[in-house]
Amino acid sequence: MTTPEIDIPETGITPGGTSGAFRDVLSKDHARRGKPPLHFVDMTPAQRIEKAAELGLPKFRVKQLANHYFGHFDVNAAEFSDFPAAKRDEAAVAFFPQLITEVTRQVADEGATIKTLWKLFDGSLIESVLMRYPTRTTLCISSQVGCGMGCPFCATGKLGLTRNMSTGEIVEQVRVAAKMMRDGEVAGGEGRLSNIVFMGMGEPMGNYNSVLSAVRQISAMPPEGFGISARNITVSTVGVVPGIKKLTAEGIPVRLAVSLHAPSDELRDELVPMNKRFNTTQVLDAAHDYWLASKRRVSIEYALMRGINDQAEHAQLLAKRLNHYGDNWAHVNPIPLNPIEGSKWTASKPEDEKQFLEILHRAGITATLRDTRGQDIDGACGQLAAKER
């Protein structure tokens, strides 16, 4: 299957975001800041060699730097014993500028969940959440400062979009978490970061190029990347159809997650403003095409909201919409809505959650009620607001 090349602009404004029925919700600070410093992972292999040459270093030194970064999660060039002592400081400045600085770290679930607030070079704030489970450890990372999608039940959506994050800013969240796991800083002792989900702050498809560059480097084997399997990486979207089509054409076996939240256009127009640009049929068609191309089951994310989208008729319509395609292509993740400050939206009653799942199961839909880790530290889905405490 071939997909035509689709231009997704660098600004973070999604296709149609400057005209048409949907417009990105922008923060007052949007686009007023400069670009982050260029980091090792922002550079192409040729750019790395060129930068090394500027420092008087042969190109094999670039591979040493890559091995330190991706193989050992290390950016402290002053301690690179295999590197010329006279060039360590210069290499640190040229290749490893500090892009993210920890502001606060909050812990929940007896130390198994850690939410970190990061300050970026321009003072912007973003968050990531590290969650350790019995058989895996998952890091939820941010790809934009804020979010322009404007979903009314989501704390990040209320911030508006400030700017896209660079590949370096995205990948640094992964490096630090991988190092934390290796060094035993998470409850349970030493371990390995195994899963990455682009479900933190931002719409990943609105920052497509940086996200894809990050995915490639997260999944490549050392010394080109961290060696986290692409099959253990999830890229989430509210339904930016051109981004889904472009991801389909990449042929990278990541999991696609679609934040659907409603089975009809009438309801989804209210809950997910992007639906006014790309409606449920367009979104589900694109998601099903991803399944056909990748044979990777698509995750349908569905935040259950009391009396809004959690009744029997909603579950029945959702099952009908998914079964329309005739194959077991989707896995539904109903999520009890995580409350946010000042919101009229609230979580479903347990009996309605149970009924919703039962209806999907009876219709032959694979569905699992998702865990809400980190809710008490505002670290669960939809709660990331990057507030200093």
Q: Which structural class do the helices and strands define? A: alpha/beta
SSE string, helix = H, strand = E? HHHEEEEEHEHEHEHEHHEHEHE
Low-confidence spans: pLDDT under 50, at least 5 residues?
1-6
Strand order of the largest sheet: 1-2-3-4-7-8-9-10-11-12
Gyration radius (Cα, Å) is: 21 Å
Q: Rough shape?
A: globular
Number of helices: 11
Helix content: 25-40%
The total beta strand count reads: 12
How widely separated are the two ends? 49 Å
Q: Please outline the major beta sheet.
A: 10 strands, mixed
Integer average pLDDT: 91
Taken as a percent bin, the fraction of beta residues is 15-25%
Question: Your description of this structure?
Answer:
The protein is an alpha/beta fold and 389 residues long. Helix content is 31%, strand content 17%. The protein contains eleven helices and twelve strands. It has helices at residues 45-54, 60-72, 88-95, 155-159, 167-182, 208-219, 241-250, 265-271, 280-294, 312-323, 350-362; strands spanning 100-108, 113-120, 125-132, 137-140, 144-146, 161-164, 195-198, 233-237, 255-259, 298-304, 330-336, 366-367. A ten-stranded mixed beta sheet has the order 1-2-3-4-7-8-9-10-11-12, covered by helices on one side. Helix 5 (167-182) packs parallel to helix 6 (208-219). The protein is globular and about 70 Å long. The chain starts with 44 loop residues before the first helix and ends in a 22-residue tail after the last strand. Residues 1-6 have low confidence and may be disordered.
